[in-house]
């Protein structure tokens, strides 16, 4: 019986040697402020950065801020908590809520400066232990 158990263990181990390993992930959370005040209703995206010719280390992550500007990241591919360990480009956008009212009666959409989203200058390095201080203090001007 012990021989059978050992053979089964060796077969499983051998089969997994060629298996791709899952990227290392760590928990990430923080607070986003705009001009020193909490920024609610914002969408935060972390995208791993790579050098030319390198393969991405894993999926990006996302989060949404609450009324106090706080957020926690989740993986884009499986919605599990965390972000891939390594350097990331960060984009922050204000979420737009659908409104059934006449578009002319809606308040004008608020936008953040492009340097925080489509032309983002924001970077963050996720360390193996994760971070509870992935904070960003944005300026409207």
Can you tell me about this structure?
By secondary structure, the chain is mostly beta strands. The protein has a single domain (23-96, 109-138), classed as Immunoglobulins (Immunoglobulin-like). Helix content is 11%, strand content 32%. It has one helix and eleven strands; from the N terminus they run αβββββββββββ. A five-stranded antiparallel sheet has the order 7-5-4-9-10, with no helix packed on it. Strands 2, 3, 6 and 11 form a four-stranded mixed sheet that branches. A hairpin with a 2-residue loop joins β2 and β3. It is globular and about 45 Å long. The relative contact order is 0.24. The model is unreliable at 3-21 (pLDDT under 50).
Calculate Rg over CA atoms: 21 Å
From the helix content, strand content and strand pairing, which structural class follows?
mainly beta
Mean of pLDDT? 83
The secondary-structure element order is: HEEEEEEEEEEE
Q: What is the CA-CA span between the terminal residues?
A: 73 Å
Uncertain spans, ≥5 residues at pLDDT below 50? 3-21
CATH class term:
Mainly Beta
The CATH homologous superfamily is named Immunoglobulins
Name its key features.
141 residues, mainly beta, Immunoglobulin-like, five-stranded antiparallel sheet, four-stranded mixed sheet, 1 helix, 11 strands, globular
Brief summary:
This protein has 141 residues and is mainly beta. 11% of the residues lie in helices and 32% in strands.
SSE topology sketch:
Elements lengths: L1 H16 L7 E2 L2 E6 L2 E2 L3 E7 L12 E4 L5 E3 L1 E2 L7 E2 L1 E9 L27 E5 L9 E3 L3
Parallel strand pairs: 2-11
Antiparallel strand pairs: 1-8, 2-3, 2-6, 4-5, 4-9, 5-7, 9-10
């Amino acid at each position: 019986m012990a021989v059978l158990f050992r053979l089964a263990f060796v077969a499983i181990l051998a089969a997994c040697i060629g298996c791709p390993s899952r990227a290392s992930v760590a928990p990430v959370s923080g607070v986003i402020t705009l001009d020193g005040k909490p920024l609610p209703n914002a969408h935060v995206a972390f995208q791993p950065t790579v050098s030319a010719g390198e393969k991405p280390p894993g999926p990006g992550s996302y989060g949404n801020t609450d009324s106090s500007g706080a957020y926690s990241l989740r993986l884009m591919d499986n919605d599990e908590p965390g972000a891939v360990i390594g350097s990331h480009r960060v984009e922050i956008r204000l979420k737009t809520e659908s409104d059934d009212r006449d578009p002319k009666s809606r308040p004008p959409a608020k936008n953040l400066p492009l340097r925080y989203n489509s032309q983002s200058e924001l970077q963050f390095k996720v360390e193996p232990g994760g971070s509870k201080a992935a904070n960003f203090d944005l300026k409207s001007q």
